[in-house]
Write a structure and sequence with these properties.
Elements lengths: L4 H21 L22 E5 L4 E7 L12 H9 L2 E4 L3 H4 L4 H9 L7 H4 L2 H12 L13 H15 L8 H12 L3 E3 L3 H9 L3 H13 L4 H13 L3 H7 L1 H7 L1 H23 L7 E6 L9 H7 L3 E4 L11 H4 L1
Helix pairs in contact: 1-4, 1-7, 1-13, 4-9, 7-10, 11-12, 13-14
């Protein structure tokens, strides 16, 4: 069965942005903690690396932005990296993620800047198919007309993820933000929320439409695809996660891949280098979406190429691995 892998990258790279808006609305639902969540099964195998030079070390952790309650508690490896780190750095600073004005920013970025509508940009056959699907649920395309396809795509995917029990406020990054707040650890971000929104808004319209078409052609495959992605992340299976996400995105939506993944990785690596270079500064934990750690375009391999010592931290792994390249 053909997987709808393009959309899977929304969960690894872009759903974190949409989840912010949802998290604002769901602020009354606290992020899970080890004290409040009973361990129903073994913790997820972490996508965690230690990058070091002679003086400093940075832990780099691959997050999944939408998780379930039984994905907690986290691995002891993550707990140790968190405790050892004097600062926790996320894609976006927590204060921006938690800013009540962020949700409105997100909706503004999702709209058409040139006065067009969704009905106008979609091919007639796709527009009619979307209308039929919406009509079965008592909804009209007019309710989506003000938004670009990338936003509609994420909205549909997040609706399915919610039905499956995934919650943005239970994502690993949200959990660690709450832990940092509780422990009084300094936090930071690799980019601003405005940068993230600009990235999504700048993806080519043709590729936005292609991704939405994949969803609407076979919407019943979405739960299985999301389940596969989550299983691959939970088991720490780099090769499977890469195949389900990054490789297919690169093939089918190359410009979106460049904007969402490559260019952001290239902007983040020098910032991580600054954490490592110079006089001893202590350890830092960097938490980003798992997509950004995969393959030769990923942060891990880019740091390895800079000459840093890179080792995977994975007590649960049957065979020790030192990076994404070796795990393929």
């Amino acid at each position: 069965m053909r997987r709808l892998k393009i959309l899977g990258l929304s969960l690894l790279a872009a759903a974190g942005l949409m989840s912010v808006a949802l998290a604002v609305e769901q602020a009354k639902s606290p992020a899970p903690t080890a004290a409040t969540v009973a361990p129903a099964k073994a913790p997820p195998v972490p996508l965690l690396w230690k990058v070091s030079d002679r003086d400093n070390a940075v832990y780099v952790l691959g997050s999944f932005h939408l998780l379930k309650q039984d994905d907690y508690p986290v691995s002891a490896d993550i707990d140790r990296a968190f405790e050892a780190s004097g600062k926790i750095v996320f894609e976006v600073p927590p204060e921006e993620m938690n800013d009540p004005a962020m949700a409105q920013k997100f909706l503004a970025a999702a709209g058409f800047a040139d006065g067009r509508t969704l009905s106008q940009v979609l091919p007639a056959s796709l527009r009619e198919k979307f209308n039929r699907i919406l009509a079965q649920r008592g909804v009209s395309i007019a309710q989506f007309d003000g938004y670009e396809p990338w936003f509609v795509n994420l909205s549909l995917m997040l609706g399915i993820s919610q039905q499956m029990g995934f919650r943005p406020e239970q994502g690993l990054d949200q959990y660690l933000m709450q832990q940092a707040l509780a422990k009084g650890k300094p936090t930071g971000g690799l980019e601003s929320i405005d940068t993230q929104l600009q990235v999504l808004d700048s993806t080519p319209m043709t590729e936005q439409i292609a991704s939405l078409k994949e969803f609407l052609d076979k919407p019943t495959e979405m739960p299985g695809m999301l389940g596969d992605l989550h299983d691959a992340w939970r088991s720490g299976d780099l090769a499977r996660l890469d195949a389900l996400s990054r490789e297919d995105m690169l093939e089918k939506t190359p410009q979106t891949y460049r904007l969402i993944n490559v260019e952001r990785n290239d902007a983040w690596v020098p910032q991580i280098q600054q954490m490592l270079d110079g006089v001893k500064k202590g350890e830092t934990l960097v938490v980003v979406g798992a997509l950004h750690l995969l393959g030769d375009d990923g942060v891990i391999e880019k740091l390895r190429a800079k000459g840093y010592t890179v080792e995977r931290v994975c007590s649960a792994c049957a065979v020790p691995a030192v990076g994404a390249a070796e795990a393929k």
